[in-house]
Amino acid sequence: MVRIAVIGAGAIGGTLAAWLAQSHDVTVCARSPLADLEVETPEGVIQAAPRILTDPAEATAVDWVLCTTKTYDCPAAAAWLPGLMGPTTRLAVIQNGVEQRERFPQVPAQRTVPVIIDLPAERTAPGRIIQRREGTIHVPEGEAGEALVALFTDTPIDAQTTPDFLTAAWRKLAINCSGIVSALTHRPAEVANDEGAAEVMRALVRECIAVGRAEGADLPDKLADQVVKWTTLAHPQSVNSLHADFEAGRQTEVDARNQVIVRLGAKHGIDTPMNRALASILIAASTRP
């Protein structure tokens, strides 16, 4: 039985903790106390009663730490690491963007595993989650990646290694960066059917492609059109997480989804005016009095 600590008890963290607790020793590190976890999954309702910690001073070393917080909560998540990380503990960073390894520099790179997750879920109340479909996890090839995949052997979550994680991460960022259009127009996925909005989405993705290629990702030109097409095929009322957070007045992950393209573009001398402009507008709108 593997000892696993999950930092974050939101939709992703709660779902992963509930599934992993069916066959492993799981601790959930959260801001507020929880009685237990209950997840409505495609296979039925699962329940779990993992150990719940709210004070980093109470943490003890585990085999794996899974960080599932929003990217802007990394400083708070890092407070748990001194207690959780032993000499051989590995850290899986399950977050948006392409800078997972850079977010926790205090952990050796060889013990940090960046993770791409596609697991539609929503938290309806503390410890109560609806998982919309089974979900997938992708990690880099190698011993650490294979060890993470093994954690999910007894779950319906499809975890696997990928030989080109860099490209996979930038491909997901290409999808995520276009979601800012929904946020700023206050329209769900159906906004991609508007040709003007669709062209803005393509421009955002083209900038992502250019920067991703400079970073070493293998991204085709057609990806810009594909992202728009995939969005039109989604449920017309589906809302991405950036849009949901913006509408609710919460902090957003615009840095990990759009500003990172601007930041890395500048490093390579690549101009990214569309991502820069829309990120600036969203930030201004988020900080209005």
TrEMBL record:
GO biological process per UniProt: pantothenate biosynthetic process
Record pathway: Cofactor biosynthesis; (R)-pantothenate biosynthesis; (R)-pantoate from 3-methyl-2-oxobutanoate: step 2/2
Keywords: NADP, Oxidoreductase, Pantothenate biosynthesis
Domain Ketopantoate reductase C-terminal intervals: 164-283
Catalytic activity: (R)-pantoate + NADP(+) = 2-dehydropantoate + NADPH + H(+)
Function (record text): Catalyzes the NADPH-dependent reduction of ketopantoate into pantoic acid.
UniProt name for this protein: 2-dehydropantoate 2-reductase
Organism: Sphingomonas kyeonggiensis
